[in-house]
Amino acid sequence: MKKLLIVDDHAVIRQMICLALRDHFELEQFGDADSTYASLATSRPDGIVLDVMLPGSMSGYQLCQRIKSDPALASIHVVLVTARGQVADQEFGRALGADAYFIKPFSPVALVRHLTTALLSPSGAAATGSKESPLP
After folding, report:
1. What's the domain count of the chain?
2. Could you tell me what percentage of the chain is helix, strand and coil, using 3-state DSSP and rounding each to the nearest 5?
């Protein structure tokens, strides 16, 4: 089973995401980017659902950039989830290498569809929806 990390400082949001994804993926939860990044030294998930605004020394944007700039980690599928929905925010996420950008509140069904298509289907093509922005 493919493994996803769910990273959000709000436990209720992590639980909602896990509830939607639990039948499709092995899940591990984190409340900050620092502990998430530390976990990558011993475990390689297939994807990360990553909030942008996180406590600690590193934001979700910074974690995404570290992952995508490291050749050993760059293949991890990163989905940014955030209340920051401006076009400039989405473009910034794209520039950092994010694979998709979901604006809160988002449809859990759309997130499941995106991740199952991207990580479980043979084609790996990203699904689209009205409040999600797959990034090339």
Report:
1. 1
2. 40, 20, 40
Name the token pair of 8: 């959000």
At 18-38, the pLDDT tens digits run 999 999 999 999 999 999 999
List, for residues 72-104, the tens digit of each pLDDT value: 999 999 999 999 889 999 999 999 999 999 999
Work out whether the CA dihedral 29, 21, 66, 42 comes out positive or negative: positive
Three-state DSSP at 49 gives strand
From CA 117, how far away is CA 68, in angstroms rounded?
20
Under 8 Å CB-to-CB from 64, ≥6 apart: which residues? 50, 78, 80, 93, 96, 97, 98
- State both tokens at 18: 């896990």
| Token pair listed for 10 | 């709000």
Range of the domain at 54: 3-134
- The amino acid sitting at 85 is G
Global pTM reads: 0.89
Exposed/middle/buried for residue 117 (C-beta within 10 Å: 0-12, 13-18, 19+)? middle
Check which CATH number belongs to the domain holding 51 and give it: 3.40.50.2300
- At residue 23, what is the residue type? D
